[in-house]
Design a protein that fits this description.
Blueprint (H helix, E strand, L loop, with lengths): L2 E7 L6 H14 L4 E4 L2 E3 L3 E3 L5 E3 H10 L10 E7 L2 E6 L2 E7 H7 L4 H14 L2 E5 L17 H7 L3 E6 L5 H10 L3 H4 L2 E9 L7 H11 L3 E6 L24 E6 L4 E2 L13 E6 L2 H4 L4 E4 L1 E2 L2 H11 L1 H10 L3 E5 L1 H5 L3 E3 L11 E3 L7 E16 L14 E11 L8 E3 L2 E4 L10 H13 L11 H19 L2 H8 L4
Parallel strand pairs: 1-9, 1-10, 2-9, 3-6, 10-11, 11-12, 13-15, 13-16, 16-18, 18-24, 19-21
Antiparallel strand pairs: 4-5, 6-7, 7-8, 14-17, 19-20, 21-22, 23-24
Helix pairs in contact: 1-2, 1-14, 6-8
Length: 487
């Protein structure tokens, strides 16, 4: 069975996911077969594996860092929030239905066999498992039914590194307070602490680190610098949404829907030096972009209502009429059609039918069975502004409850309005180039002025940079001692 190490955090967004990805890359570089694992993930940013199972994007990123294919065993439970008090529950890649928070909380321990089966199966196939916790292990109101932090650590006998976020302040209180709230057997699992997202001179921290070690009774394993790598974020806490991006030579606006999902679909456009990708949720911030993107959403009907009420629907109509390129993906694609119907209340929005934006010739009806599949092919029959896509290969995945038409093409539309059910459609070589070339043609500018890049080479380089940061920030000799149960 594989050796394991677990990364827990003092809070959400302390940097667990990125640190776990960095460790996966380091272990891969050192010649080990390594896989990530997170028993329960809550996120709208999901992925469909080659086998058709659904899992969280964070473990997909970690699998990429480890150089292996994503597998639902890496994330046996995925919760996709549908309301403020409920989520769609997915176990080992398959939808189990929608549950209110208290119902899931009562039933959570019933999923332990599925979690352990997934973990043990992975552990039989790999040398090292890097486990990621969720939120904080010190949520004392939730500890009794915990299956993702110390509860999981006990089940799989995992040693733990505790990560605190110094960028938000109070990191010493975060780390010490978290450990102080743990039971004696849980404290014994903590083998070290990590100060994450540090900017500045580490020597200034030294006195505090010495006191922290004495108070906590475990060493500070490292101080991770605030790492500037371009790696997909896990969820809506992403810094992408907080960027004040100036408009560049080509300007793209993503409508930030309240229940936005799979926003990483648009990451390829961020990597051109003279392209701006802005997330907007107000008409005043839309301005006059060269392209408007409507992203996926966990609730098409509710977010279409919000789009209408906010005035952004009218603004998108106006832009489309003026020739601005409008492209919808998944839920955003459904919004562009004539209507969206939900007779069986699959989305639980309380509405059985709503008029769409009427920019594409299709109607969507929600059904109980989810479409979950990877897809690939070659673009053909694309007309209008994006006809340059024809002949290019694409690949990605579909994940939706709504059905819009039989045998939909990879990209549907003409003129300047298009849509697709395929997540990741802009990732394949040449696809984002073709879209930007069309925009450059409209503006009469040279495509070469945008700066080009190889997507896959770029991603690999980012994982290597992350590994470099982990090696420089952590005492990897001590980490290996933890793995070998020498401490």
């Amino acid at each position: 069975m594989a050796k394991c190490i677990m990364i827990q955090g003092t809070m959400s967004n302390a940097g667990k996911s990125l640190l776990a990805a960095g460790l996966c890359r380091v272990f891969k570089q050192d010649g080990w077969r390594v896989a990530p694992f997170k028993s329960q993930n809550m996120a709208l940013n999901s992925f469909i594996t080659a086998a058709g199972g659904e899992m969280g994007r964070a473990q997909v990123v970690q699998a990429e860092a480890a150089g292996i294919a994503p597998d639902v065993r890496m994330n046996p439970i995925l919760l996709k929030p549908t309301t403020d008090v409920g989520s769609q529950v997915i176990v080992n890649g398959v939808v189990q239905g929608n549950m209110r928070a208290m119902e899931y909380y009562r039933r959570k321990r019933a999923y332990i066999p599925a979690v352990l089966e997934a973990y043990n199966s992975l552990a039989a196939d790999y040398d090292i498992i890097v486990i990621e916790g969720a939120g904080s292990p010190a949520e004392i109101n939730l500890k009794q039914e915990d299956i993702v932090n110390m509860g999981l650590a006990k089940l799989v006998d995992a040693p733990v590194l505790l990560v605190g976020d110094i960028d938000r302040g109070g990191v010493f209180a975060q780390l010490y307070g978290t450990i102080a709230l743990l039971e004696a057997d849980e404290k014994a699992r903590i083998k070290g602490t990590i100060v994450n997202k540090f900017r500045g001179d580490r020597s200034i921290l030294a006195p505090g680190l010495e006191i922290l070690e004495k108070l906590c009774g475990v060493p500070v394993v490292g101080v991770m610098p605030y790492t500037h790598v371009d790696i997909d974020d896990e969820d809506s806490l992403t810094e992408r949404f907080r960027r004040d991006t100036a408009r560049k030579l080509v300007d793209i606006a993503v409508i930030r829907l309240p229940r936005i999902s799979n926003f990483t679909d648009f990451s390829p456009f961020e990597r051109y030096g003279n392209v701006s990708l802005r997330y907007v949720d107000r008409v005043a911030d839309l301005h006059r972009p060269d392209m408007i993107l409507l992203p996926g959403t966990k609730s098409t009907i509710e977010d279409l209502r919000w789009l209408r009420q906010s005035g952004l629907e009218a603004a998108v109509h106006k832009a489309a009429a003026a020739g601005t390129l409008v492209f919808g993906v998944c839920g955003g694609y459904q919004m562009l059609g004539r209507s969206v119907s939900d007779p069986d209340q699959v989305e639980a929005a309380g509405i059985t039918r709503i008029e769409g934006m009427g920019l594409l010739d299709m109607d969507t009806v929600f059904a109980g069975e989810k479409v979950q599949t990877q897809t690939r092919g070659v673009f053909s029959g694309v007309q209008g502004l994006l006809s340059g896509l024809n002949g290019l290969a694409y690949e990605g995945y579909e994940i939706h409850m709504g059905r819009s038409r039989e045998k939909l093409p990879a990209v549907m539309g003409s003129g300047s309005v298009y849509g697709s059910y395929i997540h990741g459609i802009f990732d394949a070589p040449g696809v984002s180039d073709a879209v930007l070339k069309a925009l450059c043609g409209q503006k009469g500018i040279d495509f070469d002025a945008l700066g080009t890049f190889d997507v896959w080479e770029y991603k690999e380089r980012q994982y290597d940079l992350l590994a470099d940061a982990v090696r420089s920030g952590l005492d990897m000799h001590y980490v290996y001692r933890i793995l070998n149960r020498e401490v």
